[in-house]
Amino acid sequence: MKLKLDLHDVYNRGDEIDRQLRGVIDEAVAKRAKLVEIIPGKGSGQLKKRVLRFLQQKEIKALYHRVEKDSGNFGRVFVHFRWK
C-alpha cells in the first residue's frame, strides 16, 4: 500500500503543513503502509526542507525505516516503512 500527500495547497500555512504530515505518517502506521510519497513541489526548496526537518524529529523518525529523495524529481520525497 502506498499513501500520497501533496502539499501544494498548504505551502504557506506552517501549522497545516505539520498537521498534514503528521496525519499521513499516522495513517501509514495505522494501515501498515509500505510507502508514503510526499510532494512538496519544486519551488524554492524551502517546503522540502521543512518536510525533511519534520521527518527528522525523534518521535517521527522512530516510526519509519528510511527517507529517499527522488533523484529524478526534486519535488518528491519517499518515506519507507518496514513492518514485521
Ends apart, CA distance between termini: 15 Å
What percent of the residues sit in helical stretches (DSSP H or I)? 25-40%
Based on Cα principal axes, name the global outline: globular
Pick out the low-confidence regions.
Answer: none
Largest sheet: 4 strands, mixed
Look at the helices and sheets and give the structural class.
alpha+beta
Number of domains: 1
Mean pLDDT: 93
Strands in their spatial order, largest beta sheet: 1-2-4-3
CATH topology (fold) name? Ribosomal Protein S8, Chain: A, domain 1
Q: Please report which band the strand proportion falls in: under 5%, 5-15%, 15-25%, 25-35%, 35-45% or over 45%.
A: 15-25%
Classified by CATH, the class is: Alpha Beta
Q: Write down how many β-strands occur, each being a DSSP E stretch of 2 or more residues.
A: 4
Helix-strand pattern: EHEHHEE
Number of helices: 3
- Alpha carbon gyration radius: 12 Å
In CATH, the architecture is 2-Layer Sandwich
